[in-house]
Amino acid sequence: MEAKERRYDVDWLRVIAFYLLIFFHAGMFFVPWQFHFKNPQTSEWFETWMAFLHYWRLPLLFMISGIGVSYALGKRSPLKFVGERFKRLFIPLIFGMLVIIPPQIYFERLTQGVHFGSYFDFWKTVFEFKPYPLGGALSWHHLWFILYILFYSLVGLPFFLFFRSKYAVGIRERISRFVMKHPNTIYTIMISLAFCYFYLRPMFPVTHGMFDDWYNHAESFIFFLSGYLFASIDGVWNVIVEQRKKSLIMGVVPALFLILFVWGPTLYIMNEKTEAFGLFYGTLIQFMVPGILFSVLGYGKILLNKPSRLLSYANESVYPLYILHQSVQLSIGYFILQLNWGILPKFILVVIGTFGLSLLIYELLIRRFNVMRLLFGLKFRSGVKQEKNIRETQPVFEEGR
After folding, report:
1. Would you state the pLDDT for residue 5?
2. CB of 189 within 8 A of CB of 174?
3. Dihedrals φ, ψ of 138, to 5°?
């Protein structure tokens, strides 16, 4: 398989998905769901839009990450691919656990009434290597996504290499012909997702703890593998584009029902504690998530597959922003939540502050210095204008496309 031409729509979707993550995490202060610390008041309206985002934002990122693996392997040997994954995933993960994550735990401890002589006194507890939340400051927190992408990339590598080899040409061609002849085949992903949701989810609640997170692993790897296959099999993406209207209907109809009658601040039409509701709710989710994902991918190809200077900048900066954002958000949120303001002004200030301070750190401390670029998963600058090298400076999850 040859390296494919650049897909700017995938770059745009990656940037948009990570930016949505910042809005989502900012909203976590204002809903009753478990989080590091909360605003004194919460909002049902926040629960509505956040519940909708919750079900498909991470699946989209895992799909995009799988797409990136397909493109990356088209330009690299297996050994180089593994080396780059280590450099651009493992190094930022370790640096993040030692430097970026501790402020999150520090401010959480302050809200719990635990005080330290200084931040440095707290930070030294990282090197006691007592995992959070048992009293230490060692954790991967929101960087669990990086760990999982690294794990899936390495575990799936034998299959990825086989599937793109000459021995799998016939398999790829048969799948391609079958999918183009039977376009509804793309929706069979719902079968595996339904198995995960109804069978694995009750036994293995989501923990992001790597070794006990089997439902999350199974579902996330399905999306990751699907992204790889969509980018590796000729014609599949064309089918996704052709099916975009059907996908949109399949995703929007159950989403509207859930928004109006379950997630929204309105009368519930069903008893959420009954087994019948759980089955009905889960079924709606199994239609909504693939429908939203396929419609986003399909319409993205039509509307977003074009370069721009804004995309070039956002595409490189989004990975450092992802690494930084939650620590910045919790650091400023600790002070903002103490203000005697309403929920919406606090939310807006948290979002603006998170974006602004994260971008400022990126511009002043990361973008121009190769050591910092290494620690945040970016390729070294060569001294040539960044825009001329944008193809070689991708965020870690889908580098080298």
Report:
1. 72
2. no
3. -100, 115
